[in-house]
Write a structure and sequence with these properties.
With 104 residues, this protein is α+β, with helices and mostly antiparallel strands. It has two domains: 65 residues, no CATH class; 38 residues. 41% of the residues lie in helices and 22% in strands. Strand 1 and strand 2 form a beta hairpin. The chain starts with 17 loop residues before the first helix and ends with a helix.
Length: 104
């Protein structure tokens, strides 16, 4: 019985490692888009649009996407912004009650 030790396993990635593929996807970016709709007869009950962009941060900035930089929930300042917002809401409520008292 003879075995061939020189046989190669052929893969769809042609020898690319997972890291190479991930680097290529993040460098170029990939967009996945789809629509789902649920209908009964001719009446549409539900419509969902799905858009997914996978890219590196640098590529996203290059194409003009940087929403995470200004999102207060993702920022280190989110707690202070939420506290300041709550203080403003309390102040507005106080001023509204004073105006209501003056009118009566």
């Amino acid at each position: 019985m003879s075995t061939n030790t020189n046989s190669k396993i052929v893969t769809a990635t042609n020898g690319s490692s997972l890291a190479d593929i991930l680097e290529r996807v993040l460098d170029k970016g990939i967009v996945i888009a789809g629509d789902i709709s649920v209908s009964v007869g001719s009446t549409e009950l539900l419509s969902i649009k799905i858009r997914l962009l996978i890219s590196s941060v640098d590529k996203a900035r290059e194409i003009g996407i940087n929403w995470w930089e200004s999102d207060p929930y993702l920022s280190s300042q989110s707690n202070s912004l939420m506290e300041a917002n709550q203080k403003l809401l309390d102040r507005v409520a106080s001023l509204e009650s004073e105006i209501k008292a003056l009118r009566s």
